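Deliverable D2.4 — example input (structure tokens):
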């Protein structure tokens, strides 16, 4: 892969290690981050190069990977004379790992196609730990041809890379993921609070019921940390609420009924109102334990 030039735009908690895995897989990586010091730290640790605009980072790249915060952030790095679309050459491929709306994915894909550039929407699941360990699940929307071109890069930081359908399908699949995760977290929070109120050893409860039908990733990874009031890690409440708002907007458009998700979104709003939006999304438990 040493002849494959790649650009990685966005070196947050997810992007920094993802770009690192790409470099370790022998891609020739140039990075860009809005905060230049983060890009400089990445280069110092992992080599490669840094650029001061997305367009400069993507100049000459065969594959461009992006991972930013939301729809507005994505448009800000993609558009304009300093944006990704301005720097990426014809026959290049953009792979966007942002968790965003299907609407913006289709919008960027259309603009890319007008320039002869391929596009995949490819949100990920697995959190910061999955990114660091190269064990993410990638849900991809796009053409078969673009997927075949982009899959080797994504495999460098993933345990599963799956094409779900045309552009937008990756984002829609990630919405399903977040609906299921948020509902599971709320159920786990209620169960753990019930255990404590009943005088049970919550750690022992997790050890027992995780061996049965109640087992889930959330239970095994967040059940004990919840009751130990450990929330200074993981996927922030701020980001989960952002994702649920995307789910709710899409549900209003497609007619899906997601009443529990709508309720849980209000719980995350309450956490934000308490000034705790940067805590891990399992902090839903605090609304019960503090009552």
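Example output (designed residues):
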């Amino acid at each position: 892969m040493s002849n494959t030039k790649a650009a990685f735009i966005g070196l947050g908690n997810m992007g920094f290690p993802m770009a690192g895995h790409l470099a370790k897989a022998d891609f020739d990586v140039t990075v860009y981050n809005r905060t230049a010091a983060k890009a400089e730290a990445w280069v110092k640790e992992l080599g490669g190069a840094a650029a001061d605009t997305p367009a400069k980072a993507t100049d000459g790249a065969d594959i461009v990977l992006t991972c930013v915060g939301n729809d507005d952030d994505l448009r800000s790095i993609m558009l304009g004379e300093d944006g990704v679309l301005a720097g990426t050459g014809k026959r290049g491929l953009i792979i966007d790992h942002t968790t965003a709306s299907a609407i913006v994915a289709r919008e960027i894909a259309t603009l890319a196609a007008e320039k002869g550039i391929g596009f995949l929407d490819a949100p990920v699941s697995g959190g910061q730990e999955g990114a660091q360990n190269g064990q993410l699940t990638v849900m991809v929307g796009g053409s078969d041809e673009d997927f075949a071109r982009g899959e080797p890069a994504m495999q460098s930081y993933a345990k599963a890379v799956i094409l779900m359908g045309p552009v937008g399908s990756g984002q829609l699949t990630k919405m399903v993921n977040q609906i299921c995760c948020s509902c599971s977290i709320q159920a786990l929070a209620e169960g753990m609070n019930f255990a404590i109120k009943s005088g049970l050893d919550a750690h022992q409860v997790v050890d027992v019921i995780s061996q049965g039908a109640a087992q889930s990733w959330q239970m095994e990874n967040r059940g004990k940390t919840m009751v130990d009031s450990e929330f200074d890690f993981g996927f922030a409440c701020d980001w989960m609420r952002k994702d649920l708002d995307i789910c709710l907007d899409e549900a209003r458009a497609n007619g899906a009924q997601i009443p529990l998700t709508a309720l849980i979104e209000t719980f995350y709003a309450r956490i934000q109102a308490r000034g705790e939006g940067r805590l891990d999304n399992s902090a839903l438990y605090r609304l019960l334990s503090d009552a």
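The mean pLDDT is 97.
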